[in-house]
Design a protein that fits this description.
Length: about 350
């Protein structure tokens, strides 16, 4: 069993007298900054000039350039997109890191693939909420929290874990539970889960189901409801009580279909072989290398795939249905919920 920590294991006094710089004010950035401030911490925000600067200022924060925020802070939390973090670090953070400071991340990508290599005399830790920033904030406001991962990559001061746990308590994570891991394992499992199941696998499966029903002559609205809309209902049941709870809640007909047809669509031996190939690319750096190169070369493939998806009938029909249904969540709509930006 992985080591777990809760509020009783965290001491916010390890943040006393320390200034925390949140670099980025996107989904995660605004949530971390506001939660920490509400927990009594001294928080500043480091940004480039732009819309996020105005937003953070309007929210009552002292906003500085990334370089000045790094100089002023004792703890620097990097909450910008993976593909931008290294450039920002090398240009504005690295020259201003001095002995005894701490640099933190919400994802281990840049540490795992050595795009960022902090000096040996600073603490390096990860505080990773397992949920989007808007949920980190809303759960905190409700007196709850989002489960978090904690990892200590480099303990220069001898107090890195205490500081990391205090930081996570400050954003509300200790209310739910904090699981100890490493930045290496978090990065590889996170990328694997996203690519094979949560994003890559599920999206491709939904798209295929939608297309098969439409090609067979069924109304695209029916196909959307059956293959895409109901996915949330099923996942919510699993999230609450596991697959057994989901099976208890659905019809016996649906459960029987799960057993006889699921393996026909996703034959385990073939799927696991494909997944192992994906995992290998993650472990040996192939995926990271491709993603880094993609960002250096204009994102041609990425942008073309995004544009292609936007024109797919399942997206067009889905948008139309959501706009006309009472269950549409007006607070979220069709906006991205976890874009970290500054």
């Amino acid at each position: 069993m992985a080591k777990m920590y809760y509020e009783k294991d965290c001491d916010l006094s390890f943040l006393d007298g320390k200034k925390i710089a949140i670099i980025g004010y996107g989904s995660q950035g605004h949530a971390h900054a506001q939660n920490l401030r509400d927990s009594g911490c001294d928080v500043i925000v480091g940004l480039r000039q732009g819309n996020s600067w105005k937003k953070a200022t309007a929210d009552g924060f002292t906003v500085m350039s990334v370089a000045d925020a790094t100089k002023a802070a004792d703890i620097i939390m990097m909450l910008v997109n993976d593909e931008r973090a290294a450039d920002i670090y090398h240009a504005s953070v690295e020259p201003n890191l001095t002995a005894g400071k701490a640099i933190a991340f919400a994802h281990g990508f840049n540490i795992r693939y050595q795009q960022i290599v902090p000096p040996a005399d600073v603490d390096v830790f990860m505080a990773a909420p397992k949920g989007p920033g808007h949920t980190v904030r809303s759960q905190y406001v409700a007196g709850k929290g989002v489960p978090c991962l904690v990892a200590v990559e480099q303990d220069a001061t001898g107090k890195c874990k205490d500081i990391a746990l205090a930081y996570i308590a400050g954003i509300g994570g200790a209310r739910a539970g904090i699981m100890e891991t490493t930045m290496h394992d978090e990065t590889e499992t996170d990328l694997f889960g996203e690519q094979t199941v949560l994003c890559g696998g599920v999206v491709d499966l939904m798209q295929c189901g939608f297309e098969v029903l439409c090609e067979a002559g069924y109304a695209p609205e029916n196909a959307y409801f059956e293959c895409i809309h109901e996915m949330k209902l099923i996942v919510d049941l699993i999230n609450k009580g596991g697959v057994a709870a989901m099976n208890y809640s659905i019809s016996d007909t649906a459960e029987y279909g799960e057993y006889v047809s699921g393996p026909r669509i996703l034959p385990h031996d073939q799927i696991k072989a494909n997944m192992r190939a994906v995992l290998s690319d993650i472990q040996d750096g192939t995926f990271a290398g491709k993603w880094i190169a993609e960002n250096k070369n204009g994102r041609t493939f990425f942008n073309s795939k995004r544009a292609q998806l936007a024109k797919h009938p399942m997206e067009l029909i889905g948008k139309e249905l959501r706009e006309n249904m009472l269950w549409k969540d007006s607070a979220e709509g069709d906006k991205g919920l976890d874009a970290a930006s500054n």
